[in-house]
Amino acid sequence: MGIERGSQLDRPRMISISGLSLSRGERVLFRDLSLTLASGEAVALTGANGAGKTSLLRAVAGFIRPDAGNISFADVEADEARAKHIHWLGHLDGLKGARPARDELAFQAEWLGAGHDGIAAAIDVLALEPLLDLEVRKLSAGQRRRLAFARLIAVQRPIWLLDEPLSPLDARWREALGVLMQAHLDRGGAILAAVHDPLPVAARALDIGGGR
Ligand SMILES: Nc1ncnc2c1ncn2[C@@H]1O[C@H](COP(=O)(O)OP(=O)(O)OP(=O)(O)O)[C@@H](O)[C@H]1O
């Protein structure tokens, strides 16, 4: 398995977070968090349930506003980075259950700007062909995660924000996604992932304290 698409990813390839404080409701999740994510690098956010890993990813994606601190992206304003340079893959994958997988993949990937070749590459490397005529709601959790992941392959974006990306996958597909993640890093991409299990690529760990 591999992707031989060869094109260079666009900048920016780095996130800089400084002095970040984040609350949810009445609760302060963390204060004064700093992190730099460089091109070619993966960072694994670890910590207990409720520590704030997903919340940090959501703040980087621009879905929630921090109490204090700064999140910046190399060479480009945050709004543009979030619109054009980030792939977000969360617990809620945004896939519509009633649509055939083929239509849903085409809809999502084309909305992100994928062409036919990108979609075909994603179908190939994620072995989606046998699943494409099934409605999304009929896919198993692992099959559905592969379908959700397909847009990251169909459209190249430099920053991947992943929330427990491997949790429903079996050993074979964890390994396969490790290959795809490594290819992304080798092209100069970056990965920031919330995890309970180790990522299948070399990654720097950042423990988010707290949790309950
Ligand atoms: N919309 C919300 N309103 C209020 N509190 C929230 C909201 N979303 C999350 N929280 C709270 O923020 C805290 C951190 O949640 P978050 O999902 O970031 O944790 P996590 O580290 O990703 O946990 P897990 O390992 O269980 O996925 C939790 O206590 C959670 O209840």
Strand content: 15-25%
CATH level 1 name of the largest domain: Alpha Beta
Q: Rounded to an integer, what's the Rg over CA atoms?
A: 17 Å
What would you give as the CATH superfamily of the largest domain?
P-loop containing nucleotide triphosphate hydrolases
CATH architecture label name of the largest domain:
3-Layer(aba) Sandwich
Number of domains: 2
The quaternary organization reads as: single chain
The largest beta-sheet arranges its strands as 5-6-7-3-8
**Ligands:** adenosine-5'-triphosphate
Number of strands: 8
- Residue share in helices? 25-40%
- Could you describe the largest sheet, including whether it forms a barrel? 5 strands, parallel
Pfam family, one: ABC_tran
Protein name: Heme exporter protein A
Keywords: ATP-binding, Cytochrome c-type biogenesis, Membrane, Nucleotide-binding, Translocase, Transport
Organism: Brevundimonas lenta
Describe what this molecule looks like in 3D.
Residues 1-8 have low confidence and may be disordered. Helix 3 packs parallel to helix 5. The chain has 2 domains: 11-85 and 157-212, 3-Layer(aba) Sandwich (Rossmann fold); 95-156, no CATH class. The chain is of the alpha/beta class. Strand 6 (159-163), helix 6 and strand 7 (190-194) form a beta-alpha-beta unit. 32% of the residues lie in helices and 24% in strands. Strands 5-6-7-3-8 form a 5-stranded parallel β-sheet, with helices on both faces. Strands 2-1-4 form a 3-stranded antiparallel β-sheet, with helices on one face. The protein has 6 helices and 8 strands, in the order βββαβαβαααβαββ. Adenosine-5'-triphosphate (ATP) is lined by residues 24-25, 27, 29, 47, 49-55, 194.
